[in-house]
């Protein structure tokens, strides 16, 4: 699977419903960033936004939780229509139990590797998870630049996935743009999460089409 997941953090939420049908023609996944002002120094949105969007699209809701103790809210995010829930392992009190809890709700599960966290944090869980989300820079804000040191991280996770015959996909989140997308895919990424690169100038579908052409996906 090689694809782009638009991240609505960079969208004008009031316009999003209008853009959803055309986004849905260009992408299967929609990336939703939930931030709590505690694990990361920023606050975004939660259940009401997911609930409003869910009936408007069949897109796969790729929910990225940047919150402390996410296990408190898994069931609420599942009820709000998440198809996949990704959390940062350092935020959960028991990673193994948290993975199982997400799966028991019928959702796919991902583990995120923040900018300053080593890839080996997720290695023990590769056989059970659906996604490793590798941050291009510190979680918390859109519009930042990709930190090149994370290219090696993508490669090492990909290597380990192949070695262990794990079904997990790799997504790269933060700082994905027209210039670096191809390299990230070549390093082993399957999904490129893109916020600003997709939603800039209020023309998400057109930008998405151009990025897909640039990346050859
Ligand atoms: C930031 C979020 C990202 C963000 C990416 O912590 O996890 O999903 O929306 O934004 P860009 O593509 O603008 O770097
Ligand atoms: Zn994200």
From TrEMBL:
Residues at which a divalent metal cation binds: 31, 33, 64, 173
EC number: 5.1.3.1
PROSITE patterns in alphabetical order: RIBUL_P_3_EPIMER_1
Family label: Belongs to the ribulose-phosphate 3-epimerase family.
Biological role: Catalyzes the reversible epimerization of D-ribulose 5-phosphate to D-xylulose 5-phosphate.
Catalytic residue positions: 33 (proton acceptor), 173 (proton donor)
Catalytic activity annotation: D-ribulose 5-phosphate = D-xylulose 5-phosphate
Pfam family, one: Ribul_P_3_epim
Domain of life the protein comes from: Archaea
Cofactor entry: Co(2+); Mn(2+); a divalent metal cation; Zn(2+)
GO biological processes: pentose catabolic process; pentose-phosphate shunt
Metabolic or biological pathway, per its Swiss-Prot or TrEMBL entry: Carbohydrate degradation
Protein name: Ribulose-phosphate 3-epimerase
Co-factor note (free text): Binds 1 divalent metal cation per subunit.
Taxonomic placement: Archaea, Candidatus Iainarchaeota, Candidatus Iainarchaeia, Candidatus Iainarchaeales, Candidatus Iainarchaeaceae
Keywords assigned: Carbohydrate metabolism, Cobalt, Isomerase, Manganese, Metal-binding, Zinc
């Amino acid at each position: 699977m090689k694809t782009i997941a638009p991240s609505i953090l960079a969208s004008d939420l009031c316009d999003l419903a209008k853009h959803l049908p055309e986004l849905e023609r260009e992408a299967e996944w929609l990336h939703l960033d939930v931030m709590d002002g505690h694990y990361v120094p920023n606050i975004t949105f939660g259940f009401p936004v997911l609930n409003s969007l869910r009936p408007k699209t069949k897109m796969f809701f790729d929910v990225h939780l940047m919150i402390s103790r996410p296990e408190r809210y898994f069931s609420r995010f599942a009820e709000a229509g998440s198809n996949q829930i990704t959390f940062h392992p350092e935020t959960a009190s028991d990673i193994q139990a948290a993975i199982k809890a997400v799966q028991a709700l019928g959702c796919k599960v991902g583990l995120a590797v923040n900018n300053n966290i080593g890839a080996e944090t997720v290695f023990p869980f590769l056989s059970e998870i659906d996604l490793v989300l590798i941050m291009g820079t510190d979680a918390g804000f859109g519009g930042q630049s990709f930190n090149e040191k994370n290219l090696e991280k993508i490669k090492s996770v990909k290597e380990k996935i192949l070695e262990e015959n794990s079904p997990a996909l790799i997504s790269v989140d933060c700082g994905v743009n027209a210039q670096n997308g191809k390299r990230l895919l070549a390093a082993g990424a399957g999904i490129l999460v893109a916020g600003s690169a997709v939603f800039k100038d209020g023309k998400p579908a057109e930008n998405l089409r151009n990025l897909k052409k640039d990346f050859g996906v």
